[in-house]
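Worked example 4.2. Below are the chains of a multi-component assembly; read each line carefully before continuing.
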Amino acid sequence: MADSKIYTASTTAPVNIAVIKYWGKRDTKLNLPTNSSLSVTLSQSDLRTHTSAACSSIFTENRLYLNREPQDVSGARQQACFRELRVLRAALEAADPTLPKLSTYNVHIVSENNFPTAAGLASSAAGFAALVRALADLYCLQNTPTELSRIARQGSGSACRSLFGGYVAWEQGHAADGSDSLAVQVAPASHWPGMRAAILVVSAAKKDVSSTSGMQATVATSGLFRHRAEVVVPARMEAMKAAIQKRNFEAFAELTMADSNQFHAVCLDTLPPIFYLNDVSRAAIRVVEEINRVAGKSIAAYTFDAGPNCVIYYEQENEAAILGVLKPYTSGVSGWGDRRETVHARIPEGFNAALCEPLKEGVSRVILTGVGEGPVKTEESLIGADGLPLAL
Amino acid sequence: MADSKIYTASTTAPVNIAVIKYWGKRDTKLNLPTNSSLSVTLSQSDLRTHTSAACSSIFTENRLYLNREPQDVSGARQQACFRELRVLRAALEAADPTLPKLSTYNVHIVSENNFPTAAGLASSAAGFAALVRALADLYCLQNTPTELSRIARQGSGSACRSLFGGYVAWEQGHAADGSDSLAVQVAPASHWPGMRAAILVVSAAKKDVSSTSGMQATVATSGLFRHRAEVVVPARMEAMKAAIQKRNFEAFAELTMADSNQFHAVCLDTLPPIFYLNDVSRAAIRVVEEINRVAGKSIAAYTFDAGPNCVIYYEQENEAAILGVLKPYTSGVSGWGDRRETVHARIPEGFNAALCEPLKEGVSRVILTGVGEGPVKTEESLIGADGLPLAL
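Applying the procedure described above to all two chains together yields the following structure tokens:
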């Protein structure tokens, strides 16, 4: 009798926000980067993708649903992840013939984000990390997260970093087949648990230029890009790892801000120029600079991915100073939660509050989060007994 | 009997807008640049400084008036120009003892701009070029504009290029004393007389960060800046000179846009980052890109100095195509003059006119001009018989 069982596994996976930015591929098919990068994984309490994977002999095709909408699975990125994970599963089955032949079945993937898609909030990173983690669990793979990062990276470059919690490096590697282009944990969240992140969501509209096409335009046309990739970033990677090991926030902050600025600089040095920052983003930069000026040292660090949203890293001990400045200008938007009561407006003496005015109209939501853990297995499945997404 | 005569000379001098940008000094006292630059001199019909210089034994101090307001003349830049020009005059007097001893007299300088000061419209370039040219005429100096450029450069770097009309290079030079950091004419205006410039004045407010402090912050903190100065610009200078020699507008346009973007990229790569472009500037870039896309080739080139104003270069033959797109969105502001009747709104088929919308609110004035001549001597003096500024 044929095995008609539906096998399932579910996981959640986090978003990560890079502090040394990934921008530029040396191999677009394998998503091999032109430089290493480093990120902080954010707490899944606030930002996560929840993904269930199922496979069964009765499934007639591969399917993928994102926020209940069917997605195209014929893309090379999804196909690469499916194929590579099946290869690992097939090896297990070959070694132990009693195992069900899951590698021969079609899969159904059902995925949900608790945040807006493609608004520069690293949704594809969490999405592909969750997809790879859920399939690896479904297939009972014993591979380490670093080994799986080789596969997640083929889905979306930065996804490889979302397979870990804490502080994560993606080492660019040099092999043509990408076998050494892998993510490794620099330090777990518990090493520096007080790292917080306040995200000012400036626009949840879809981006103008996708990261993939944008970064390749930069590689092709920027006169400054190679110098960044070959000279600037390697030194910054070492400095950033040292800052994290020593929990040196000032060094962390200064490297983070410089690298965000340089990433957007090479975007601007692209033909045609790519703009992700807008006037509200720039106002947020000035606010962070003013917070640091008044504090007499860098207690906050801004960074921007491929979008206008500002991510502000700070340490827990300075929360009152950071959020106290942001609150009076953003308290009308969602995301404050409990802190609407516990955080008090606090504009320090000598602070140029006029710099904050553009935040009032420009910020549509805040997300108050911090460093967090890597993917977590869950029993909560998004897939019903029929192998299709559960109704909401 | 003492000579109490008031000697005067008057000149007008043009603005220039660089297409290969000057940004960064290797010597801040002598204004020696880290890279060569190249500009187009704009017509004095539209933008000019008018300056009269006077000297007399009866003047008790050096004085400078800009737009009728007394200015500080104790600054090192003004003092350097006065001193260097006196040295040249003193040499003439030593060679011919019959000459009046103008080199021993105090000077009065009276200067007027026909455009807003310090709004990113290169007012200091025109101002120092006019000051040097007027004093050189007052002193009857026979030095060439290139020789005088050594002096004007000490007043304001880009002023050295405003001593010429047409297409002008400022060769960075290598000597420690700056003796080879000089401006030369690449081609006169008559070589390529059809070059036009439409300036969209986005804000006439004073700048946030002055060029002088901004460029040195870039030199000190940008990881990309040296690569630009040492590798990118030298190649672009040669390519730009060739484009001008051949009147190859497409090459001229692509180099101009790329270099403007790269200048603003190294500003963004500065700590703290320097922003001169705002959302209206970026909209203007998208409009120019769309004009070129619809034309199927680069018929317009944007460039931005240290401010948000957009300068769009184009050739006369394409005026209807360029201004026809701009007019419907900016016809309410001053600067259209005769062209308010002669230029007709013309949005080509397939043109994404939504890109132009931000110009409606964001552009406060247009200046429609073109390539022009260098400083011109004038009999119209701004200085009265008392040696003071004439009443308006």
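Take a moment to check your reading of the output against the notes. Chain A touches chain B through 27 residues (CB under 8 Å). The longest strand of chain A covers residues 48-56.
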